[in-house]
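User: I'll paste a sequence; please echo it back and then give the predicted structure.

Assistant: Echoing your sequence first, then the prediction.
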Amino acid sequence: MKYIESLKNPQVKQWKKLLTKKERQKTNSYLVEGFHLVEEALKFKEDIIELMYSEEIEIPQEWDIHGLQVTKITSEISKAISDTETAQGIFAVCQMKNTSVNELNGKSFLLLDAVQDPGNIGTMIRTADAAGLNAVVLGEGTVDAYNPKIIRSAQGSHFHINILTGHLDEWINKLQQEQIPVYGTALENGIPFKQVQPEDSFALMVGNEGNGVSKHLLELTKQNLYIPIHGQAESLNVAVAAGILMYYLKK
C-alpha cells in the first residue's frame, strides 16, 4: 500500500485532472467518491484502476479489496480531489467501458439529445437502470456522462447499465435496421403515449430541457409521443417524463 502526503505529488495532480472532461476522455477513466459509490464499484472490481482513502477513515472490513492498488492519502489531499463540499475520504479511479454503434447489444435504449442538466442525466441513467433498459446513449450536446454530478445523481447505475455516446442519427438508423422501433418525444405530430403498445424492444429519445428533441431527429423516428398534461403545469421535467415513458414502454 502506498502513502501520499504531498499535494504536489504528480499522482494527486492526475486525480484532480479527472474532474475535467478533457482528462477523462484522454485517459478513458473517471473518479468516483463516497462510500456508496465505491462500494458499488467494488462489485465490478475489473473496472477499478486504483482505490484511495483518507488516513482519517477506515475501509469497511467486509469490502474485498484484495488485488487492488490501494493508496492512503491525507485529509488535505482528500479535500483537494473531492468534488463535494464535505468529502467522505474514499475514492476510486475506474475505467470507462467502450461500446460503439457497431457493437449494438440489447433490446431497449434511452437516447439523450443535447440534455444539459447533470441532475437530469444522472436521474435518467438511474431510472433506465431501474426500468431494466439495456443502454443509455448520449448524443451530441449532452453533458459528459462521467461528470461528477452525474455520477452522484446516478447512484452507481454507471456500473449496471451500458452508457454510450455517438451521433443519434447513426444510432437511430442502426436501431431501425435491427427492427427496434425508435420513439421520439414531441407535441408536434405526436400522439398520446398510451396509444402505442409496450414492447420488448424499443428506443426512447428525449431532448434538451428548453428545446426538446432536434427536429431532424424527430423526422427519423417511428412515432413521436407526448404525455398529456391534466393539470395547470406547462410541461414535465425531462427526467420525470422519461421515467414515465420508459416504465410504460418496457414490456
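The chain has nine helices and twelve strands. The chain has two domains: 2-95, 101-249.
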